[in-house]
Structure formats: structure tokens, C-alpha cells
Amino acid sequence: MPTFRAPRGTRDLLPAERVPMTRLERVAADLAARYGYHPMETPLFEDAAVFERGIGAVTDVVEKELFFVGARADEGERWALRPEPTAGIARAYVQHGMQTWPQPVKVTMTGSMFRYDRPQAGRYRQFWQFDVEAIGDPGPAVDAEIIELAARFYRDVGLPDVKILLNSIGDPACRPAYLEEMTAYYRRHEARLPPLERERLERNPLRILDSKDPAMVDVNAGAPSMTDGLCEACAGHFEAVRAHLDALGIGYTLEPHLVRGLDYYTRTAFEVYPAGAGGQQSAIGGGGRYDGLVELLGGRPTPGIGFGIGLDRVLLALQERADRNAAAEAILAPEPAPLAVVVGSDPADTATRLRLATELRGAGLAVRADLGQRKLGKQLEAAARDGAHFAVIVGDELASGQVQLRDLDAGTQRPTPVTNLARDLERAARTHHHG
Ligand code: HAM
Fold first, then answer.
1. pLDDT tens per residue, range 376-420
2. Which residue from 40, 260, 272, 313 has its CB within 8 A of the most atoms of ligand 1, so it is best to mutate?
3. Is residue 435 within 8 Å of residue 419, measured between CB atoms?
4. Which terminus of the chain is less hemmed in, N or C, by CB atoms within 10 Å?
């Protein structure tokens, strides 16, 4: 047992995982740019009140999962690591007067989030999200744009058959009546509620519907549906969102009990699950509208909508898939092998090998130098193990300005002037790849 290990619920992303994760981030960045969402970054920690107020005090994320940062209490500071990006982005929107910018303000952020969750497969205490937000547009068209963007991300990374669950959870006009009806329902079934849910019945009944407790599955199935009690404005909005999604050919499943785990949502709410996922499986993404959030954080009333995609879970879904398509294979593929490895007959002459490799790297080529002081045969074996296409072999003919260029797959080699090496390698690589 090593003395030190990564903290519980966190993990090291070794190259085999970091490389595909970087590819997911690249797809995310490219898509966001194509759709006109601009990258931004908020601090990894905020005044804890940003999350308590924004996400809601009676939510799992705030009640149980906030990571508090060792702040200097004597200076009155209370910080928490960000459990999600939306509250911090809304805080930044207010702080920087973004309501005076052209609306909507469309931003994207990708990075680590922190939740003191019970660790298990796909549930980590530090995890990665791709987040997109459009603030300042009441919808409904932008709601469909956001959902379509999320759907395209999954398709582009090799998960074309995800399941999108869609609901509307109303607004302050219609939700109180629904909450009353819901509360009455759970009161009738109070005996079947676990203690936490019984307590939530008093403090935040909507959270009961989002319970992860298996004992709640049956009770929740019979609960009244928000969509039956939507006010006219919310019902019209929801209908228009669906019409826009239909026009885009985006498939979805109506899920009248979907409420999401954060309190800021109004109207549109959606969650995404891998194909064939069972009821208890974790979402690989989710989002929705939050028309009250900016105001909660001290700004003017401003509508907003966005989503967060859990990149760790997307990666798991890709790894677990038996029927990977080409896009999925491209995300999971190992790092490309170096084009060439510079080896030499004089084990001690590492300086020349390093110098040649440096020149080739300067010319833009992916080249490794064998810097171990071992025999040429061993160096060539290592180059083949690397999967390199070529070996540049430094020998006595370097005195006359030449090296041997060896095609490791074909097993052929020919002398090449050092001055032509970069150009020769490039040309050889092209015919190699296409041949
Ligand atoms: P969320 O549903 O709490 O929403 O998180 C979004 C996604 O992050 C989840 O669907 C899941 O894939 C991933 N995720 C959450 N917790 C964990 C965890 N402990 N380990 C691994 N992955 C996790 C939000 O965070 C909202 N900010 C989304 C949003 C943006 N709504 C509007 N704008």
C-alpha cells in the first residue's frame, strides 16, 4: 500500500484517460464556438452564499455536498468549491453588468466541479463538466437550440442514441398550486417515506421527486405531474419548445416527474441518459431554464437556460459500449505514435540524437530521441514498440552529413542527407499514411 493515495472520490486521470478527456473537451470547444458560445472561466471557489442562494439551501448539492474551503474565518470569509458552474456564471453576469451587453449572453465553461458525494462508479467528488449557458433570452427557441447542441455533442463523440428526458416544471405563477397538490399526495403516503424525505416534505417537497432512495420509486411513480397544472404561459412555452425540437428532428421523451436536483430551475428541464440505461442509472447530462437565478443573486430579473454534461460519465459510457462507432473509437484511440525515433550506433552519443530530434521537432514533426545509453538493437526494438513509423539511425556516415532513414514497418532503409531529413520524413510519412 502506498503511503499516499488520491483523496477518496477523486482519481488521477492518467494519460489513457486524460487523452480521451482532452478530445471530449476539444469537441465541446469546437461545438460551442460554432454555435456562438464564448468561453469564460469563473474561480474554482466562490462565496458559499452564491451556491446556497443560487442552487437552494434545501438541496443535496448544498446541504450535503458542498466542499468548504479553509477560509480565514477571522476575516468573515466563507468559501466553497464550485459544485456546478451556473451559479458562478450568473454571479459574474451580475458583477460585470452583462445585462448591458447584447442579449442573450452566450457563454461556455469546461472544467472541474466538486461535490462531497458518496463516491461510486461514475460519481466522483471531483468531476469534469462541459457547460453552456444562454442568459437573457426567455425562449422558447433558444431552449431548443441548447437541447439540440447537447444532442449534437453526444452524437459527435460517439453516443448517437442517448435518451433525452424533457419536462416543464412551471414557474412561480403555477408551481405553488402544484406544490400544494404534491404535498397533499405525500402526506397521504407519509408512512412510506424514509426520514429524509419526510423532512423534505416540510422544507422542499419538490426535492422528494428527485430522491435517489430506491424506497421512493413506487411512491414517486404515483405523484401528481407538474405538467397537468402548468399555467397558460408555461404550457404555451412548453408546447413551443417541443414544436421547435420537432422541427429540428430532435427526439425526446416526456418525463412529467423530472424535476432536477437544483432549485433554480423554471419551466424547461431536461436530462440525458445513455442508451438502454435503467431507472437508477446516472444522467450523463442535464439542464434547463433558470429565469429567477440572476435576480436571486442580486441582478435584474433575467431569463436564462443552459446545460451541463458530465464528461467523466460520457467517457465511462463510451468505454462500456460494445458497439462503438467510428466517432467513439476516435475519442478512445491511444495517442498517435511518434513519426520517427532518432537512434544511434554509439550508445554514449546522446547529444547528437537529441540535437537531431530537436531540429525535427522544430520543423513541426512528432519525434522521440532515444536518450538511453543502450545498444542500437535495443533502441530499434524500443522504437518499434512505440509504434513509430521510422527510425533515424545515426552512425559513422554522419561525418559526411548522412543518416539512415529506416521504415520500421517495411524493414527497408536508405541513406538521407541530414539537411533533407525533415522534408524526407514529411514526404515519407505522407506516402506511408496513404499507402
Ligand atoms: P447537474 O445535473 O447537477 O446540473 O450536473 C450535470 C451533469 O454533471 C450530470 O448530468 C452528471 O453527468 C454530471 N455530474 C454531476 N455530479 C457528478 C458527480 N458527482 N460525478 C460525476 N459526474 C457528475 C448542473 O450542474 C447544472 N449546472 C446544469 C445546468 C447548466 N443547468 C443550467 N445550466
1. 999 999 999 999 999 999 999 999 999 999 999 999 999 999 999
2. 313
3. no
4. N
